[in-house]
């Protein structure tokens, strides 16, 4: 299904740029790249999804903490980059907390972070019990856009020295892991993204020289008239797209097939966490970490998607300035 942010749906700039694909005049002698138009109208809305992203201005937290005799390894606060960074952040967390002399581990949370952390522990031969307040399709990860790119993860003015090294390391590991999972089994595919602007595009997906530039794949800048959009400038790049409901269900299946246990349980405070039988607990509770462990920095950032009726011919994504975007080729469940 096509999906758009509500801002994208109501903003006339994006709506015109997408819906007007077929009507842009073509320069004589120029071969215009065919881009089928998105049919945008209120009567094509299937539903509106709203989610809260777990944002920390200083970036995601991977850190060990002792809670009495229980070791807690925190792995949360990824903002809009939870799915993108999930495997890499899980790798950092497991490196922080895995001990070959410890047989059993607990993981809190069944979003992308919790599931990937549990999988990495199982791959090391550990016994894992995953505790979660909710399972797919009732997690924040389920309604994420699913584009592989860590957006809105940190405030560059608030990060500590060395944070970007950890951020890029997590992105690099996660990028490799998602590449290995590409295909229908996990619902991961490569798609082209068009960045539309009235000015030359220089900083999306990453500006020249930025540490994340290595993940900007097949970047192409287009002259006015080369693409059937109404903006003066456009850039394309390729990213992986994750069909999040399908992907999360598959990870749950993998965990169970490897012998992992999944228990639906909500923790009210850190004392209940400390009372678990497992000596090492990985905290992947997202926003819940604020209440459970007293993190006053984490706060919710609202994200909103307008799900449109499917258009089989739409196989590209649109990104404009700010937070407006349109993603295609999704397979969301019926409301």
Note down, in words, how this protein is organized.
The chain has two domains: 3-23 and 36-53 and 189-242 and 304-327, no CATH class; 56-181 and 245-301, Rossmann fold (3-Layer(aba) Sandwich), CATH 3.40.50. Helices cover 25% and strands 27% of the residues. The protein has eight helices and 14 strands. It has helices spanning 6-10, 12-19, 82-97, 112-123, 163-181, 244-257, 270-274, 288-293; strands at 3-5, 45-55, 61-67, 70-76, 104-108, 127-132, 188-197, 217-222, 233-242, 261-264, 280-283, 299-308, 316-319, 325-327. The protein has an eight-stranded mixed β-sheet. α3 crosses α4, α3 crosses α5 (163-181) and α4 (112-123) runs parallel beside α6. The chain is globular and about 65 Å long. It starts with a strand and ends in an 8-residue tail after the last strand.
User: What is the share of helical residues?
Assistant: 25-40%
Number of helical segments with 4 or more residues:
8
- Could you tell me the mean pLDDT? 88
Distance between the termini: 12 Å
